[in-house]
Design brief:
The protein has 290 residues and is an alpha/beta fold. Helices cover 54% and strands 14% of the residues. 47% of the residues are buried. The structure holds nicotinamide-adenine-dinucleotide. Pfam families: NAD_binding_11, NAD_binding_2.
Protein backbone atom coordinates (compact mmCIF):
# COMPACT_ATOMS: atom_id res chain seq x y z
CA UNK A 1 0.00 0.00 0.00
CA UNK A 2 1.25 3.46 -0.91
CA UNK A 3 2.29 5.86 1.82
CA UNK A 4 -0.28 8.64 1.93
CA UNK A 5 1.16 12.15 2.07
CA UNK A 6 -0.84 15.31 2.70
CA UNK A 7 1.00 18.14 0.96
CA UNK A 8 -0.10 21.63 2.07
CA UNK A 9 1.25 24.57 0.05
CA UNK A 10 1.66 23.93 -3.68
CA UNK A 11 3.44 27.11 -4.74
CA UNK A 12 6.71 27.70 -6.58
CA UNK A 13 8.50 25.13 -4.39
CA UNK A 14 5.71 22.87 -3.16
CA UNK A 15 4.44 22.01 -6.64
CA UNK A 16 7.66 20.44 -7.98
CA UNK A 17 8.39 18.83 -4.61
CA UNK A 18 4.96 17.19 -4.59
CA UNK A 19 5.52 16.04 -8.17
CA UNK A 20 8.70 14.18 -7.15
CA UNK A 21 6.74 12.37 -4.44
CA UNK A 22 4.05 11.36 -6.95
CA UNK A 23 6.75 10.05 -9.30
CA UNK A 24 8.27 8.12 -6.39
CA UNK A 25 4.96 6.34 -5.87
CA UNK A 26 3.57 8.23 -2.87
CA UNK A 27 -0.18 8.82 -2.70
CA UNK A 28 -0.13 12.63 -2.62
CA UNK A 29 -3.20 14.60 -1.55
CA UNK A 30 -2.48 18.27 -1.87
CA UNK A 31 -4.13 21.44 -0.71
CA UNK A 32 -3.43 25.06 -1.57
CA UNK A 33 -5.67 28.12 -1.25
CA UNK A 34 -5.13 28.71 -4.96
CA UNK A 35 -7.34 26.70 -7.29
CA UNK A 36 -4.74 26.99 -10.04
CA UNK A 37 -2.22 25.31 -7.76
CA UNK A 38 -4.67 22.49 -6.95
CA UNK A 39 -5.42 22.01 -10.66
CA UNK A 40 -1.70 21.88 -11.40
CA UNK A 41 -1.28 19.13 -8.82
CA UNK A 42 -4.13 17.16 -10.38
CA UNK A 43 -2.47 17.44 -13.80
CA UNK A 44 0.66 15.93 -12.23
CA UNK A 45 -1.23 12.91 -10.92
CA UNK A 46 -1.90 14.08 -7.36
CA UNK A 47 -5.27 14.30 -5.64
CA UNK A 48 -6.44 17.91 -5.27
CA UNK A 49 -8.16 18.29 -1.89
CA UNK A 50 -10.68 21.08 -1.25
CA UNK A 51 -9.32 21.74 2.25
CA UNK A 52 -6.33 20.97 4.44
CA UNK A 53 -8.56 18.65 6.47
CA UNK A 54 -9.49 16.62 3.40
CA UNK A 55 -5.85 16.42 2.33
CA UNK A 56 -4.87 15.16 5.78
CA UNK A 57 -7.58 12.53 6.15
CA UNK A 58 -5.89 9.16 6.81
CA UNK A 59 -2.47 10.49 5.84
CA UNK A 60 0.67 8.87 7.23
CA UNK A 61 2.68 12.05 6.73
CA UNK A 62 1.77 15.73 6.42
CA UNK A 63 4.19 18.04 4.62
CA UNK A 64 3.81 21.81 4.82
CA UNK A 65 5.48 24.15 2.30
CA UNK A 66 3.88 27.47 3.25
CA UNK A 67 5.01 31.10 3.54
CA UNK A 68 5.74 31.00 7.29
CA UNK A 69 5.32 29.09 10.53
CA UNK A 70 2.17 30.92 11.65
CA UNK A 71 0.39 29.81 8.49
CA UNK A 72 1.71 26.29 9.06
CA UNK A 73 0.07 26.20 12.51
CA UNK A 74 -3.17 27.56 11.02
CA UNK A 75 -3.21 24.94 8.30
CA UNK A 76 -2.82 22.14 10.84
CA UNK A 77 -5.05 23.38 13.65
CA UNK A 78 -7.82 25.50 12.16
CA UNK A 79 -10.90 23.33 11.81
CA UNK A 80 -8.92 20.64 13.66
CA UNK A 81 -7.50 19.52 10.31
CA UNK A 82 -4.79 17.47 12.11
CA UNK A 83 -7.46 15.17 13.55
CA UNK A 84 -7.75 13.30 10.25
CA UNK A 85 -4.09 12.27 10.29
CA UNK A 86 -3.30 8.69 11.29
CA UNK A 87 -2.49 8.38 14.99
CA UNK A 88 1.17 9.21 15.63
CA UNK A 89 1.60 10.62 12.11
CA UNK A 90 4.69 12.62 11.24
CA UNK A 91 4.40 16.29 10.30
CA UNK A 92 7.30 17.67 8.24
CA UNK A 93 7.47 21.45 7.97
CA UNK A 94 9.62 22.13 4.92
CA UNK A 95 8.74 25.86 4.88
CA UNK A 96 11.30 28.39 6.08
CA UNK A 97 9.62 29.00 9.43
CA UNK A 98 10.90 30.78 12.53
CA UNK A 99 12.49 28.29 14.98
CA UNK A 100 10.53 29.76 17.90
CA UNK A 101 7.24 29.08 16.06
CA UNK A 102 8.55 25.59 15.30
CA UNK A 103 9.10 24.82 18.97
CA UNK A 104 5.55 26.02 19.74
CA UNK A 105 4.24 23.82 16.97
CA UNK A 106 6.21 20.81 18.26
CA UNK A 107 4.62 21.26 21.69
CA UNK A 108 1.13 21.48 20.24
CA UNK A 109 1.68 18.42 18.06
CA UNK A 110 3.25 16.37 20.84
CA UNK A 111 0.25 17.17 23.03
CA UNK A 112 -2.02 15.46 20.48
CA UNK A 113 0.28 12.51 19.86
CA UNK A 114 1.83 13.69 16.59
CA UNK A 115 5.52 14.12 15.73
CA UNK A 116 7.33 17.02 14.03
CA UNK A 117 10.45 17.25 11.92
CA UNK A 118 11.50 20.65 10.58
CA UNK A 119 13.14 20.15 7.21
CA UNK A 120 13.53 23.40 5.26
CA UNK A 121 15.29 23.35 1.92
CA UNK A 122 17.73 25.36 -0.14
CA UNK A 123 18.43 25.42 -3.85
CA UNK A 124 15.50 27.39 -5.22
CA UNK A 125 12.89 26.46 -7.79
CA UNK A 126 15.53 25.11 -10.19
CA UNK A 127 16.75 22.47 -7.78
CA UNK A 128 13.21 21.77 -6.56
CA UNK A 129 12.36 20.85 -10.15
CA UNK A 130 15.55 18.80 -10.46
CA UNK A 131 14.86 17.02 -7.16
CA UNK A 132 18.26 17.99 -5.77
CA UNK A 133 17.37 20.36 -2.93
CA UNK A 134 19.58 20.55 0.13
CA UNK A 135 17.52 19.51 3.14
CA UNK A 136 18.36 20.56 6.72
CA UNK A 137 16.47 18.36 9.14
CA UNK A 138 15.83 18.98 12.82
CA UNK A 139 14.05 16.53 15.10
CA UNK A 140 14.36 13.07 16.60
CA UNK A 141 16.93 10.87 14.86
CA UNK A 142 14.41 8.05 14.46
CA UNK A 143 11.82 10.34 12.88
CA UNK A 144 14.31 11.68 10.35
CA UNK A 145 15.52 8.16 9.54
CA UNK A 146 11.91 7.08 9.00
CA UNK A 147 11.52 9.56 6.13
CA UNK A 148 14.96 9.26 4.54
CA UNK A 149 13.45 7.66 1.41
CA UNK A 150 10.96 10.49 1.11
CA UNK A 151 13.75 13.06 1.50
CA UNK A 152 15.74 11.27 -1.21
CA UNK A 153 12.81 11.75 -3.60
CA UNK A 154 12.89 15.52 -3.09
CA UNK A 155 16.47 16.33 -2.29
CA UNK A 156 20.12 15.69 -2.79
CA UNK A 157 22.03 16.13 0.44
CA UNK A 158 20.25 15.77 3.76
CA UNK A 159 21.91 17.30 6.82
CA UNK A 160 20.82 16.48 10.36
CA UNK A 161 21.12 19.70 12.29
CA UNK A 162 19.95 18.61 15.77
CA UNK A 163 16.69 18.86 17.68
CA UNK A 164 13.39 20.33 16.56
CA UNK A 165 13.82 23.91 15.32
CA UNK A 166 17.48 23.50 14.40
CA UNK A 167 16.71 23.01 10.72
CA UNK A 168 14.77 26.26 10.68
CA UNK A 169 17.53 28.10 12.52
CA UNK A 170 20.03 26.78 9.96
CA UNK A 171 17.81 27.89 7.07
CA UNK A 172 17.48 31.44 8.41
CA UNK A 173 21.26 31.62 8.86
CA UNK A 174 21.80 30.38 5.30
CA UNK A 175 19.46 33.01 3.90
CA UNK A 176 21.16 35.74 5.91
CA UNK A 177 24.50 34.77 4.37
CA UNK A 178 22.88 34.44 0.95
CA UNK A 179 20.95 37.73 1.23
CA UNK A 180 24.02 39.61 2.46
CA UNK A 181 25.88 38.15 -0.52
CA UNK A 182 23.25 39.51 -2.91
CA UNK A 183 23.59 42.99 -1.40
CA UNK A 184 27.39 42.88 -1.53
CA UNK A 185 27.36 41.73 -5.16
CA UNK A 186 24.86 44.40 -6.25
CA UNK A 187 26.58 47.21 -4.37
CA UNK A 188 29.89 46.09 -5.87
CA UNK A 189 28.42 46.28 -9.36
CA UNK A 190 26.79 49.68 -8.72
CA UNK A 191 30.09 51.04 -7.44
CA UNK A 192 32.00 49.58 -10.36
CA UNK A 193 29.51 50.97 -12.90
CA UNK A 194 29.71 54.45 -11.38
CA UNK A 195 33.46 54.35 -11.79
CA UNK A 196 32.98 53.35 -15.42
CA UNK A 197 33.60 49.61 -15.32
CA UNK A 198 31.54 47.20 -17.41
CA UNK A 199 29.16 45.18 -15.22
CA UNK A 200 29.62 41.89 -17.08
CA UNK A 201 33.39 42.20 -16.82
CA UNK A 202 33.06 42.93 -13.10
CA UNK A 203 31.05 39.75 -12.59
CA UNK A 204 33.58 37.71 -14.60
CA UNK A 205 36.46 39.04 -12.49
CA UNK A 206 34.62 38.42 -9.22
CA UNK A 207 33.87 34.86 -10.31
CA UNK A 208 37.53 34.27 -10.97
CA UNK A 209 38.51 35.92 -7.68
CA UNK A 210 37.91 35.77 -3.95
CA UNK A 211 34.78 37.95 -4.15
CA UNK A 212 32.62 35.29 -5.78
CA UNK A 213 29.45 34.04 -4.14
CA UNK A 214 26.14 32.54 -5.27
CA UNK A 215 24.87 35.96 -6.36
CA UNK A 216 27.90 36.62 -8.58
CA UNK A 217 27.98 33.06 -9.90
CA UNK A 218 24.28 32.53 -10.57
CA UNK A 219 21.92 35.42 -9.89
CA UNK A 220 23.84 38.39 -11.27
CA UNK A 221 23.91 37.57 -15.00
CA UNK A 222 20.84 35.33 -15.11
CA UNK A 223 18.35 37.48 -13.22
CA UNK A 224 19.81 40.86 -12.26
CA UNK A 225 21.87 42.26 -15.16
CA UNK A 226 19.43 40.66 -17.63
CA UNK A 227 16.63 42.41 -15.69
CA UNK A 228 14.45 39.29 -15.97
CA UNK A 229 14.13 39.03 -12.17
CA UNK A 230 12.83 35.49 -12.53
CA UNK A 231 14.47 33.46 -9.74
CA UNK A 232 11.09 32.37 -8.35
CA UNK A 233 11.97 33.44 -4.81
CA UNK A 234 9.93 36.41 -3.60
CA UNK A 235 11.39 39.50 -1.95
CA UNK A 236 8.94 39.21 0.95
CA UNK A 237 10.11 35.67 1.68
CA UNK A 238 13.79 36.63 1.67
CA UNK A 239 13.07 39.60 3.97
CA UNK A 240 11.13 37.27 6.29
CA UNK A 241 13.99 34.79 6.48
CA UNK A 242 16.66 37.36 7.30
CA UNK A 243 14.38 38.94 9.92
CA UNK A 244 14.05 35.48 11.51
CA UNK A 245 17.85 35.29 11.75
CA UNK A 246 18.05 38.82 13.18
CA UNK A 247 15.36 38.05 15.77
CA UNK A 248 17.21 34.88 16.71
CA UNK A 249 20.41 36.88 17.29
CA UNK A 250 18.47 39.34 19.44
CA UNK A 251 16.94 36.57 21.51
CA UNK A 252 20.46 35.24 22.16
CA UNK A 253 21.80 38.70 23.11
CA UNK A 254 24.17 38.76 20.17
CA UNK A 255 25.16 42.03 18.52
CA UNK A 256 25.69 41.17 14.88
CA UNK A 257 25.84 44.42 12.94
CA UNK A 258 25.91 43.06 9.41
CA UNK A 259 22.93 40.82 10.17
CA UNK A 260 20.92 43.70 11.67
CA UNK A 261 21.68 45.97 8.73
CA UNK A 262 21.00 43.26 6.16
CA UNK A 263 17.58 42.56 7.71
CA UNK A 264 16.73 46.28 7.69
CA UNK A 265 17.76 46.70 4.05
CA UNK A 266 15.67 43.72 2.87
CA UNK A 267 12.67 44.94 4.88
CA UNK A 268 12.98 48.44 3.43
CA UNK A 269 13.22 47.01 -0.09
CA UNK A 270 10.17 44.84 0.55
CA UNK A 271 8.20 47.90 1.68
CA UNK A 272 9.35 49.93 -1.32
CA UNK A 273 8.87 47.32 -4.06
CA UNK A 274 6.19 45.07 -2.55
CA UNK A 275 6.63 41.56 -1.13
CA UNK A 276 5.74 39.67 -4.30
CA UNK A 277 8.51 41.17 -6.45
CA UNK A 278 11.30 38.69 -7.14
CA UNK A 279 14.06 39.09 -4.56
CA UNK A 280 16.64 39.75 -7.28
CA UNK A 281 14.72 42.95 -8.14
CA UNK A 282 16.24 44.49 -5.01
CA UNK A 283 18.71 46.15 -7.41
CA UNK A 284 15.87 48.55 -8.30
CA UNK A 285 15.60 49.64 -4.67
CA UNK A 286 19.38 50.00 -4.30
CA UNK A 287 19.52 51.95 -7.57
CA UNK A 288 16.70 54.30 -6.59
CA UNK A 289 18.54 55.31 -3.46
CA UNK A 290 21.24 56.85 -5.64
P1 LIG B 1 4.84 30.56 -2.91
O1 LIG B 1 4.26 31.85 -2.51
O2 LIG B 1 5.13 30.31 -4.34
O3 LIG B 1 3.91 29.36 -2.39
C1 LIG B 1 3.23 29.38 -1.18
C2 LIG B 1 1.87 28.73 -1.42
O4 LIG B 1 1.18 28.63 -0.18
C3 LIG B 1 0.99 29.55 -2.35
O5 LIG B 1 0.60 28.74 -3.45
C4 LIG B 1 -0.21 29.94 -1.48
O6 LIG B 1 -1.44 29.96 -2.19
C5 LIG B 1 -0.19 28.85 -0.45
N1 LIG B 1 -0.85 29.19 0.81
C6 LIG B 1 -0.72 30.30 1.56
N2 LIG B 1 -1.46 30.22 2.69
C7 LIG B 1 -2.06 29.01 2.65
C8 LIG B 1 -2.94 28.31 3.53
N3 LIG B 1 -3.35 28.85 4.68
N4 LIG B 1 -3.37 27.08 3.16
C9 LIG B 1 -2.97 26.52 2.01
N5 LIG B 1 -2.14 27.12 1.14
C10 LIG B 1 -1.69 28.35 1.46
O7 LIG B 1 6.17 30.37 -2.01
P2 LIG B 1 7.39 29.36 -2.25
O8 LIG B 1 8.44 30.10 -2.98
O9 LIG B 1 6.89 28.06 -2.74
O10 LIG B 1 7.89 29.22 -0.74
C11 LIG B 1 7.27 28.34 0.21
C12 LIG B 1 8.20 28.27 1.42
O11 LIG B 1 9.49 27.80 1.00
C13 LIG B 1 8.47 29.63 2.09
O12 LIG B 1 8.57 29.43 3.48
C14 LIG B 1 9.80 30.06 1.49
O13 LIG B 1 10.49 30.96 2.31
C15 LIG B 1 10.50 28.74 1.33
N6 LIG B 1 11.53 28.62 0.28
C16 LIG B 1 11.37 29.19 -0.96
C17 LIG B 1 12.38 29.04 -1.92
C18 LIG B 1 12.27 29.62 -3.30
O14 LIG B 1 13.29 29.69 -4.00
N7 LIG B 1 11.10 30.04 -3.78
C19 LIG B 1 13.53 28.31 -1.62
C20 LIG B 1 13.64 27.72 -0.36
C21 LIG B 1 12.64 27.89 0.58
Amino acid sequence: QKTRVAFIGLGAMGQPMAEHLIKSNYDVRGFDLSKDARDALASRGGFPAESAAIAMADADIAITMLPNGKIVQDALFSGDAWKGLKPGALVIDMSSSAPTDTRDLAERLTAVGLRLVDAPVSGGVKRAVAGTLTIMAGGAEADITEVSTLFDAIGGQVFRTGGVGSGHAMKAINNFVSGAGVLAAIEGVLLARSFGLDANTVVDVLNSSSGKNNATEVKMKQFILSETFGSGFALGLMAKDIRIAADLAKSLDLNLDTLAETADTWDAAKNALGPSEDHTAIIKYLNNRN
